[in-house]
Amino acid sequence: MDSYKLNPETPQLVGVKKENGKAVTQLSRKPNYFLNVNSKYESLLNNQIGVDKDDTVKRRVINECIKRVEGITYDDYLITMRDSITKFVYFLPFLLECKKLGLNPFEAAQNIIVLNKATKVTKRGIFHTFKGNFKPLEGVIFTESELANAKFDSVEGSANETQITQLSDLITKAMAILPDNQVI
Question: Which of 18, 16, 20, 12 is nearest to 4 (CA)?
């Protein structure tokens, strides 16, 4: 028998389910629509036969994936993408490996994220995750301006130049102070 009661310590409704005579609290998780879009991306991209998988094709595939996932809009996706790229830019081992491998961190971060490889890259690194094949990490799917406009545009105004170039400025400054021959 399922019932609900008010928890005296935290005044919120807590779901209680009876299992074998014991009360078990039910926790519900909000679905992660961003990850749902990304999980559809790789298989849909691989199904694009007879076309060069350039930035335009990658963008069309992402747009199609966003349409297929209910609960997320294009702007919501871009906002979450920008926040995810920002986390990568602040992750020093990622920047070091990008510098060592000659990868553009902004491009690599976008492509790692849409391929749902962010956790693997943070744990194992780019080289081991992609086994030396860095072609999938090339190309800009979304420009920095598109990402900033999605995040900062409002009825009161649009993203300013500082907000638009925030990620590239940070990457440029971080890459300049990183050592060239750092062992990863």
Answer: 16
pLDDT per residue as tens digits for the range 60-105:
999 999 999 999 999 999 999 999 999 999 999 999 999 999 999 9
The rounded Cα 180 to chain-centroid distance in angstroms is: 27
User: Could you tell me the two tokens for 108?
Assistant: 């690599």
Report d(CA 163, CA 151) in Å as an integer. 9
Place of tokens 């030396």: 132
Q: What is the pTM of this model?
A: 0.77
d(CA 65, CA 67): 5
- Of 82, 44, 37, 78, give the one whose Cα is nearest residue 61: 44
Q: How many CB atoms lie within 10 A of CB 80?
A: 21
Kindly report the number of other CB atoms within 10 A of residue 84's CB atom.
18
